[in-house]
Design a protein that fits this description.
Helix content: 25-40%
Strand order of the largest sheet: 3-2-1-4-5-6-14-15
Oligomer: single chain
Radius of gyration: 21 Å
Shape: globular
Amino acid sequence: MKVGCVKEIKNNEFRVGMTPDNVKSYVNAGHEVYIEKGAGAGSGFMDAEYEAAGAKMIDAAKEVWDTVDMMIKVKEPLPEEYPLFHEGLILYTYLHLAADKPQTDALLNAKVKGVAYETLIERNGSIPLLAPMSQIAGRLSIQEGAKYLEKTFGGEGVLLAGVPGTPKANIVILGGGSVGTNACKIAVGMGANVTIMDINLQRLAYLDDIFGARIQTLVSTDANIEKAVKEADLVIGSVLIPGKAAPKLFKKKYLKEMKPGAVFVDVAVDQGGCGETTKVTYHDDPIYEVDGIVHYCVGNMPGAVPRTSTIALTNATLNYGLQIANKGLEKACSDNDVIYSAINTYDGKLTCKNVADSFDCYDYTDIKSLW
């Protein structure tokens, strides 16, 4: 198979879909790999390394798109890339379609086989291609939240850990999944008061076992959220329903009840965000204020640490990518039915139920009914 990777064009996105080591794995498996020149520079991977691994270096992104059978990326394609789609192309990347109707339409119209990292669910219920970025985003959320609590950024001027004789900051984490757990780990390590909420009692019991008396666990209800955020210095939104738009748990009406200069970090922004006042921001202009509350809603948080993020992501995506390249998408799914869950679009059909449920204008088609 002809496999390609282009430079990400999203604002301040420095990750790359393939490392030179990945290239070597695909080449050793008998595939041709085409890399746009400069694609890995933002993550510290130079063209000479890709070439040494066996890649063919291409000047223009369009030539890569036109040549390959399978495109491996990090972020969802942007409108400038939609005209580069072609029928039958396997697009292996994060898609986040539930928050992006124009991209959904473009993939369906071009009959692209859209394989989304974020909806691949293993037999044990884990989401292995989302997990590494969730871990990074969760840890970054506390780091970024701590920064924007500083007075120079409009925050209330609170140190998370405090010092002897002063109050610690109160952190509220909405969602106890991978993002929330990793946020909790850093928040506890920094010495803050941490409350974490989830609707799953088993998950709360698990978090209680891990962190013990260092955290407060609460069932996620509107009443509990409203009470908790009133005293919060930092709120982390980390709610996920794979492939589906995030529920709006953080209400606009809460903002006026909160401390002026408190910070809200919405890690769920890729899926539309879990805050009613959420709007996508970028690393070069990451924050805005609503009713005195600082909002940090960067849609590609792990892009701030691209070296770590690229290595972590490609460690996870390589195995499934090789299965698809070696066998073709259809045979790979037949041999490993886990891969079915990652297919969001196929031959002009929408094949992810959670994405279809997030809109009222698409019919859902079971991917297994098409073959």
